Amino acid sequence: GDRWYRPSDVATAPDGSLLIADWYDPGVGGHGMRDLERGRIFRMTPEGHKGYKVPVYDFKTAKGAVEALKSPNLEARYLAWTALHSMGKAKAAPALEAMMKSSDAVERARAGWCLGKMPGAGNAVVARLKKDPEADLRIVSIRLARQLGEGVLELVGELAGDKNPQVRRECAIALREEDDGKVASLWAKLALQHDGKDRWYLEALGIAAERNWNACLDAWVAAGGDWNTPGGRDIIWRSRSKDTPALLAKIIKDPATTESDKPRYMRAFDFHSGAEKDAALQSILLD
């Protein structure tokens, strides 16, 4: 009967049910905490779920710890992770490798991440995850390689043509921290696949090229990048290269550019400065 309800936190209980804390305080805003006598914790369970049983895990064995690694409860997984890592690769690897064969993608990801962070196991796990049929697992391979600091560019080169745009976005983000001559060509390969419909993909490209815009845009143009396509116009709008102002001017002066679209490209000049910007703006005014 009490309808005042403001959920403030949620956690997964050991039995898999959800525990939701209700911040019941009439002094919302300012954190006055004037009501210290009321409050509720709601427990949500699937229909038909009965009782509250805390599973008992054997953290002294690799098999038992791996079972705990499957738990939806964070504390159980933490204990499993620390137990497996304390055992070391030689003892824990067989059980984790068996878990990596699970039909459940989440279980494969957890096992791969746990094993991959063990000394000497990372590269083999990355090699396995990058071929997983589940896109999320291929993404895990990129993130694991980044944390290990090994073979990131080679992996991006392999996955840059992935059919899944989420994987390609992760490839782009992975390029941001790399300082290598191959970055621009890899970025161009990813940018050529932008179709002008995925704003998240465009922003991933922007993040990737942040420190290397001149080389990246040059590589894109050399690889056949066309400013006069939906995807190409997007890339020019987001780019910060010294050549960008002139290309923005081309888009704005193009008869195919609608009046409603022109303000978007004009605002893009706000992110540029210098002689290239001044010359481009003059060309628009004098056209």
Report what the structure shows.
Helix 1 packs antiparallel against helix 2 and helix 9 crosses helix 11. It contains 15 helices and 3 strands. With 287 residues, it is mainly α. The protein has helices at residues 62-69, 74-87, 89-99, 105-116, 122-129, 135-148, 152-159, 165-175, 183-191, 199-209, 213-222, 230-238, 244-253, 262-267, 275-286, and strands at residues 7-12, 18-22, 40-44. Strands 1-2-3 form a 3-stranded antiparallel beta sheet, with no helix packed on it.
How would you summarize what this structure contains?
The protein is mainly alpha-helical and 287 residues long. The chain is built from 15 helices and 3 strands.
Could you give the topology of this structure?
Layout: E1 7-12, E2 18-22, E3 40-44, H1 62-69, H2 74-87, H3 89-99, H4 105-116, H5 122-129, H6 135-148, H7 152-159, H8 165-175, H9 183-191, H10 199-209, H11 213-222, H12 230-238, H13 244-253, H14 262-267, H15 275-286
